[in-house]
Design a protein that fits this description.
Two copies of one chain form a homodimer. By secondary structure, chain A is an alpha+beta fold. Chain A has four domains: 149 residues, Molybdenum Cofactor Biosythetic Enzyme, Chain A, CATH 3.40.980; 43 residues, no CATH class; 74 residues, Molybdopterin biosynthesis moeA protein, domain 3, CATH 2.170.190.11; 197 residues, Periplasmic binding protein-like II (D-Maltodextrin-Binding Protein, domain 2, 3-Layer(aba) Sandwich), CATH 3.40.190.10. Chain A is built from 17 helices and 38 strands. In chain A, helix 3 packs parallel to helix 6, helix 4 crosses helix 5 and helix 9 packs antiparallel against helix 17. Chains A and B meet through strand 8, strand 11, helix 2, strand 15 and helix 3 of A and strand 8, strand 11, helix 2, strand 15 and helix 3 of B. Chains A, B: One of its GO terms (cellular component) is cytosol. Chains A, B: It catalyses: adenylyl-molybdopterin + molybdate = Mo-molybdopterin + AMP + H(+). Chains A, B: InterPro entries: MoaB/Mog-like_dom_sf, MoaB/Mog_dom, MoeA-like, MoeA_C_domain_IV, MoeA_C_domain_IV_sf, MoeA_linker/N, MoeA_linker/N_sf, PBP_domain.
Chain lengths: 646, 646
């Protein structure tokens, strides 16, 4: 191993890599076809044009309930001079769909006739020829083209095909992807353990990409996990490449350049590598090559990288083999809630949460790490930052590709501010009660929440900002920072804050003053967070100098992250809520009880979405679930405790 | 049967009927849930919130290939004063994803180190704590909410669920529809005959609606066809209504008020009918009721009515039971190619073909009969005309609900004009050659085509207009009607026109003069069509008075419709192309050979789509398929025969 080895081939731009892909591989439907029953053919693509075998109607048919007549026999009938027709011979009762009797060419609607007796009817207006008659072949003529080649069969098409006498169709075979997960750290989900051994992870990329392939109309074979062994991977891939049923090979993991990364070597040894490394993030360490004329990929192991590489390079190949255009993403204009850094020379795909606040769709960036699968499952959209851009400013309007329906976005309640597990409970209850609204929360701390309210970027903010002069919560901060925004303050709960420590409290901490001990490592919350304000207040009260606390500069953004740091022994203690300690079976030393409140702009307070939300906060269900989590006091839950502009 | 019976309950407006539906039925997810494997759960809706069981990462993990160090040990390193670290103890080689060794908290990338020897490396910059480390729980913290109740599981979600240690999830059971096709005329497609007996039709609605239900996330049971027998239908429906697995009942057919229409009676006798008849077209004769607390519908038998009734009334119920919003149709603004009549008091759903011509999306109405399944399979969109509107004028801009991707519409080549089977062949070849473009043609005759070119409503028009003064085709008409539009004329083929007659020519016709015989019924083409001009020219030449021809006033819009009229014995003869006669095994008496040409505006002639089209016209494949159809001469096929503005 040496620092001088060639890490990647010359890195390609995304555009170059995609162009190369369409140059190398005939982007046209594969020859293979198969015959399927029409009733099972929805979503498939016709391999051949389909011509009707039967006409529809196959006969002249009554289009209304009534009597069939020869139009010429009715000419001259008027209200003043009605005509009387004999039933059975000159006028025959028919129902919709009946075959027209011989020597008739028009139907008079049942509403327009008067039955005189069993044998006679009277009409007061003439019928014109072919009135209310569906003529033979009106819909489909036998021998005519029903659907051109490469037509995608819809539910509706099933009706036309069966009606045209077609029960089977020849469709393009589903392109078959061979997915090979590699990596010694991987555990198959079918062997899901109670606890994962350190260093192991559940293999999931093959199932994600397999499902993505299925949704595009392809199929996949997932090979069992192979550890990072060159010979074994090579042999497995070689066999797959020989299989005439394999259309594409994806080696998953090991696409980078570490000592256990074999994807490039394997493809090189069996075929040819065209690209190693594309200037995009996530997704950079992708390998694109071919084996036996078939596209072969090294797919990065980080889940978001794998997804991005698949969407950029595998999706277009699948679509081309199915003779269809790439799915066109829906694009909307959004306003970022904060500036987003780019990186010159790299296309960036930034996952964002979206919501409509007032007139604007606002976009809050999610964590950018390619290893963070929740950054894409929680995303409502993706903002693409071009390689020649340094980033996006806060007041730029940019376009985002939608991952959810536009209406879902418009019906999302946007919460920005301090995190509390009670917000997650609200989100769940809301989904249970409403098929329309959902709640999306971004965790930027209490002050961040107030700033979001000020800029009109959220529907409400969760805050717990202690006024260290008078011990009140939130009000003085609102008066100072939001003088011009009418808001109301709704109490969510009082909650216990305290020191989160390892089970059994091994360092025998008794309170805030112990944090200054030499043998204690602390984990802090970010400045601007209510918990940080609370900590500093208590440190001052106890006369402890923050500089004396080891780890005071280690900042986390949520209570759970603090608890995790303690659980993982990165720290001995952190300040957080009891619910977080309880969730991870950690010990808890109470420090204070504080008010956690929602700052709701008056502009939204009476909207349907916020009324529903406040109803939910007042519900017995919600209070029950707070108590189940522990550390919450609910006597004032749901109460409007203050309004800024009475 | 009497004219005075009450045909419908008081007809409801569409709005009233939908409101009644949401009042009567709790539009909330049904209680039933079921457990499914995460790997098979894409598209399903969570019945319960899901909390993570494992953290991810479950340990502090290297985020880069490199060496793991204790950051504090690197402080002070600079280019001028590099630090040397012992490998194995103070610096440990790690690959991405590896567990961080004890007493390390940062990774230095492999690119940034210099290997001195087997035991030592050199660094020239310090690492900061947690640099290039994915900390335990960074992505997912055990116990935290992964997805709220009623979240729809996507491919991406599979990754988060498996990573969070979840292999099974509880999802909402798929609502189950019981579909009962009724009608004595129906034939099951599994007994598809060579020829349908007169009066019989293939049952297809249950398969169309069943597939639509599946695509919404429901499932269905299709009962065998039951003939229109009250007791039998009633007993079958009653049993289904008792079945706890049935969520909804659809009696298909017999929903109107004919003598064999039992849907309303059956629902009335077993439960309650709330609505019979909704002021919408298609879809008017729908029955909405309930049996045993379950929604029960009488679905009209006409295929487009069945689809519209399903979309308006069944879709919202399915979506509500799945806790999701109704799919939101994409809406675009379109310009109709001709005025569209409405009907006061009725909502109208008009199926249209769409295409982008120049800057506008133009909409050409398709046949409006509810029995015409191809009017919805060929549709690109649906224009809704409100009940209080008399119709839409030609220059109104109206909105249409898209049935195809917007890009598909934009890449559609719009042909308006005379119909020729060669146009269908072109459409098929185009789909075979291009994954991008498709061809959509509307048949309004040659003059209609020229008018469409004039108004900028199509990319080209097919015409065969004979100048009866000099025997030339098309040019004089273009000069007269398109003086201001630069166009070129491309020869598609010369084709034979003649009398289409029944096999064996039973009336022993020898030519155009025989059409005046008393025992001969003729079927004509619409005025403005090239074939009509041709007929009139030859009648004049032969000295035949049109008034002497029985059936001269019977107008059809395509060659195939004329052939079908002859096949169905509605007429003894019609003028049309040889290919139409041949397709239906009819006899053909040649009358003339004419030039069928495409009028292409110069504005589009050099566009990618038209170049591709003209390439296709010149191809050997196309010419081969013309010859296979018969009646075409191709020596000038593909030639630009004339340009209007040289």
């Amino acid at each position: 191993m040496s620092s001088s080895r060639n890490i990647y081939l010359k890195m390609k731009t995304l555009r170059e890599a995609r162009d190369l892909l369409s140059d190398r591989f005939a982007l046209r439907p594969a020859g293979r076809g198969e015959t399927v029953a029409v009733t099972k053919a929805a979503g498939r693509i016709l391999a051949q044009p389909v011509y009707a075998r039967l006409s529809s109607p196959g006969f002249h048919a009554a289009a209304m309930d009534g009597v069939a007549v020869k139009a010429e026999a009715t000419f001259g009938a008027t209200e003043a001079n009605p005509k009387i027709l004999d039933t059975g011979t000159r006028a025959v009762f028919v129902n919709t769909g009946h075959i027209m009797p011989a020597n008739t060419n028009a139907v008079i609607m049942i509403e327009d006739i008067l039955v005189i007796d069993e044998n006679r009817i009277q009409i007061e207006a003439p019928a014109f020829p072919w009135q209310h008659v569906r003529r033979m072949g009106e819909d489909i003529v036998a021998t005519e083209l029903l659907f051109a080649r490469h037509h995608r069969i819809t539910a509706y098409c099933i009706g036309a095909l069966l009606t045209g006498g077609i029960t089977e169709v020849s469709v393009l075979a589903k392109p078959c992807l061979f997915l090979l997960p590699t990596g010694p750290e991987l555990v198959d989900h079918r062997q899901m353990p109670e606890e994962l051994a350190p260093g192991r992870v559940i293999e999931s990329n093959s199932h994600v990409l397999g499902q993505m392939a299925k949704e595009l109309g392809a199929q996949y074979i997932r090979h069992d996990i192979v550890t990072d062994n060159f010979e074994l991977i090579s042999q497995t891939v070689s066999e797959a490449a020989q299989d005439p049923e394999t259309d594409m090979i994806l080696i998953m993991g090991g696409s980078s350049s570490g000592s256990e990364d074999f994807a490039r070597q394997v493809i090189e040894s069996l075929g040819e590598v065209h690209v190693h490394g594309v200037a995009m993030m996530p997704g950079k360490p992708v390998v694109i090559g071919e084996i036996n004329g078939k596209p072969a990929f090294g797919i990065p192991g980080y889940p978001v990288s794998a997804i991005m590489a698949f969407e950029q390079f595998v999706t277009p190949l699948i679509c081309a083999m199915l003779g269809r255009a790439e799915p066109e993403p829906e694009i909307i204009h959004v306003q970022p809630t904060r500036k987003i850094a780019g990186r010159l020379g790299m296309e960036q795909f930034v996952r964002v949460k979206l919501g409509k606040v007032g007139a604007n769709i606002v976009a809050t960036p999610l964590p950018r790490g390619a290893g963070t699968i929740t950054s894409i499952t929680e995303a409502h959209g993706i903002i693409r930052i071009d390689a020649d851009k340094e980033g996006i400013r806060e007041d730029d309007t940019v376009s985002a590709r939608l991952l959810k329906d536009r209406r879902y976005i418009e019906d999302t309640i946007v919460a920005v501010g301090s995190h509390d597990n009670a917000i997650d409970v609200l989100a769940d209850l809301l989904r249970a009660e409403s098929s329309r609204y959902s709640l999306s929360s971004s965790h930027v701390g209490s002050m961040g929440g107030l700033m979001a309210v000020k800029k009109g970027l959220c529907h409400f903010a969760g805050t717990h900002l202690l006024d260290t002069h008078d011990g009140t919560y939130n009000i003085s901060y609102i008066q100072k920072f939001l003088p011009d925004v009418p808001v109301r303050l709704v109490r969510l709960a009082e909650r216990e804050q305290g020191l989160i420590v390892a089970p059994g409290n091994p360092k025998k901490l008794s309170g805030i003053t112990d944090l200054a001990r030499d043998d204690v490592v602390f984990v802090n919350r970010q400045s601007g967070s209510g918990t940080r304000v609370l900590l500093d207040f208590h440190l001052r009260g106890a006369g402890v100098d923050p500089a004396a606390i080891t780890g005071y500069e280690n900042e986390e953004f949520t209570h759970m992250a603090v608890a995790v740091a303690v659980l993982g022994r990165a720290a001995d203690a952190g300040l957080g809520i009891r619910a977080a300690a309880r969730a991870l079976d950690l010990d808890f030393i109470p420090v204070a009880t504080e008010s956690y409140e929602l700052v709701i702009p008056e502009a939204f307070a009476e909207s349907g979405r916020i009324r529903l939300l406040t109803e939910m906060i007042g519900s017995a269900q919600f209070i029950e679930r707070l108590h189940a989590m522990g550390g919450y006091h609910t006597q004032n839950t749901g109460r409007v405790v203050w309004k800024s502009h009475q």
